[in-house]
Design goal:
With about 120 residues, the chain is of the alpha/beta class. The protein has a single domain, classed as Rossmann fold (3-Layer(aba) Sandwich), CATH 3.40.50. Strands 3-2-1-4 form a 4-stranded parallel β-sheet, with helices on both faces. Helix 1 packs parallel to helix 2. The chain is globular, with a radius of gyration of 15 Å. The termini are far apart.
Amino acid sequence: MERFLEGRTALVTGSVQGIGMAIAGALASAGARIAVHGLATPQEAAAAVATMRKSGASDARFFEADMRDPSAIDVMMAAVAAWGGPDIVVNNAGIQRTVSLAEATRQVWDDIIAVNLSGALDAAS
């Protein structure tokens, strides 16, 4: 693959597994430095960073933030900025709870809205 993202940094939220990891891996294979994000154990974070390096990232680092917490997002974004700042941001983090609306609690609703909608806004501002 052509390394057209050499010298660029990509922050992909929710990139310790699933779709986010696949997106981050594709960006890494194009030469981008990868800011890996997610709620992960130290072992999961280290494995995701190692995966990005194996995929071709010129560098990779893990940044933790609960996307339900705007102040945690601010801290993460400041840490990414101190690392050189993102040229690319992919707001991939998301959660779901498969229950009927009648069974959904207010906390489930608030968590889904906070991560899937508000977290993306907070990361972009």
